[in-house]
Write a structure and sequence with these properties.
With about 325 residues, the chain is α/β, with parallel strands linked by helices. The protein is built from 15 helices and six strands. It has two domains: about 150 residues, no CATH class; about 180 residues, Trna Endonuclease, Chain: A, domain 1 (3-Layer(aba) Sandwich). A hairpin with a 4-residue loop joins strand 3 and strand 4.
C-alpha cells in the first residue's frame, strides 16, 4: 500500500471527498485573505509614496531627475521592493487617480495586486468602470490576463444592460452581491462543441466537465445535481441544473436553451423557483435564484419578460468559441431538425 493512501473504514468515498473539498476551500480562502492583507499593505505604501510625489508637484520632465535619483536610493535601501522609476510614476498616478474617489472604490483597489492596479490605470479613465472591474476581479479571482480580456471585451458596458430583475426582487445588499456574482455571458468553449447539439447533450457535456463549468460560474458555487426532481400536487418537475451559492446562501437553478431567449422561459423558471422556495429552501437561506442560459438574447425582450416577475431571474448568453455566423447556422439547423 502507498504511504500516501490510508484506509478510512468509517467514511465512504463521497463523505471523504466532501471533507477534502471543504478543507481545500478553507485553505484557499485563508490564502486569499492573507494575499489581500499583503496587497493592502503594499498599496498603502505605494499610496503614500504617490502622495509624496504629488504634493511635491514632481512631474515627468521637470521632476524626472529627482524621481530618478529617488528610485536609485530607495532601491539601495529596499532592494526587494518595487521602486523602479516607472513604478514611482505609477504610484503618483495611483494617488492622483483615486484620492478623491469614494470609500467603496478605494477599498476595492486597495486589495488588488499592484499589477492589476497598473492595468486599470493604463486602460481605464471612468471611475465607475474601474469599480466594476475591481469588484469583478475580487469576486471571481481574475488573474491579470483575465482582467485584461474582460476590459478588451468591454464587460463593463455589457453589464450596464440589465438582463435580470435582482434589484427589484432581492434586498439591496443581496441584490448588489448577486449583481457581482452573475455574468451576462459565459464562455463554454471548454466543451469543444463543433456540431449541432440538443439541450440534453449540452447538459450532459456540462455535467461531464462540471469542474470547468463551476470555474466559469465563479467562486462559491456547489453543484447539487442535474434534472433535479421536484414533486408537487401529484406532478413532477425537473430543473436542468441546480447549484448552491455559499456567499449568497441561495439555491441557483440553471435552465439551458440552445436557441434564442423566449419570454415563455421566464414563466417556467418562475414556477421552478416557487417550488424550490417551497420544497427545498431552508429557513436560514435566501430566496432561490434562476438563470436562463441561452445562445442569444435581446435585452429588450428580456426586460419586458421580467417586468412583472417577483422571483429573482437573470438571462445570460453562452459562447462556444465559434464564429457568430457559424453558431447561428448550427442553432438554426438544430431548431429546424
Amino acid at each position: 500500500m502507498s504511504k500516501d493512501k490510508i484506509t478510512l473504514p468509517s467514511f465512504n468515498e463521497a463523505e471523504y471527498k466532501e471533507i477534502l473539498h471543504q478543507a481545500i476551500s478553507q485553505i484557499r480562502e485563508a490564502r486569499i485573505h492573507i494575499a489581500r492583507q499583503v496587497n493592502s499593505s503594499t498599496q498603502s505604501v505605494y499610496w503614500n509614496l504617490g502622495k509624496l510625489l504629488s504634493e511635491r508637484q514632481l512631474e515627468e520632465g521637470y521632476g524626472s531627475g529627482v524621481v530618478k535619483q529617488l528610485s536609485i536610493d530607495l532601491k539601495n535601501e529596499f532592494p526587494d521592493m518595487g521602486v523602479s522609476l516607472r513604478n514611482l510614476w505609477n504610484m503618483k498616478r495611483f494617488y492622483e487617480r483615486y484620492y478623491q474617489a469614494d470609500t467603496k472604490l478605494l477599498q476595492a483597489v486597495a486589495v488588488l495586486p499592484w499589477g492589476h492596479n497598473v492595468l486599470l490605470l493604463d486602460k481605464l479613465q471612468l471611475l465607475e468602470a474601474v469599480g466594476f472591474y475591481a469588484s469583478e476581479t475580487l469576486s471571481k479571482g481574475w488573474s491579470r490576463d483575465l482582467l485584461l480580456n474582460a476590459i478588451k471585451m468591454d464587460s463593463y458596458s455589457q453589464a450596464q444592460i440589465k438582463t435580470h430583475n435582482f434589484d427589484q426582487t432581492l434586498p439591496e445588499a443581496h441584490a448588489d452581491y448577486a449583481n457581482e456574482v452573475f455574468k451576462s455571458t459565459y464562455n463554454l468553449g471548454f466543451l469543444g462543441v463543433t456540431e449541432p447539439i440538443k439541450e440534453l447533450e449540452l447538459e450532459n457535456r456540462l455535467i461531464a466537465k462540471i469542474r470547468a463549468f463551476i470555474l466559469e460560474l465563479g467562486r462559491g458555487f456547489s453543484f447539487i445535481g442535474n434534472q433535479y426532481r421536484l414533486e408537487y400536487n401529484g406532478k413532477e418537475y425537473f430543473v436542468d441544473m441546480l447549484f448552491f451559492h455559499r456567499g449568497l446562501r441561495s439555491l441557483v437553478a440553471i435552465e439551458l436553451k440552445i436557441g434564442s431567449f423566449k419570454a415563455e422561459y421566464v414563466g417556467k423558471m418562475n414556477l421552478y423557483l416557487s417550488l424550490l422556495d417551497r420544497l427545498e429552501k431552508s429557513e436560514n437561506e435566501n430566496p432561490s435564484i434562476g438563470i436562463i442560459l441561452c445562445a442569444d438574447k435581446d435585452h429588450l425582450d428580456v426586460e419586458i419578460a421580467l417586468q412583472d416577475i417577483n422571483k429573482p431571474i437573470g438571462v445570460a448568453e453562452y459562447q462556444l468559441l465559434l464564429p457568430q455566423a457559424e453558431l447561428q447556422m448550427l442553432v438554426l439547423r438544430e431548431l429546424n431538425a
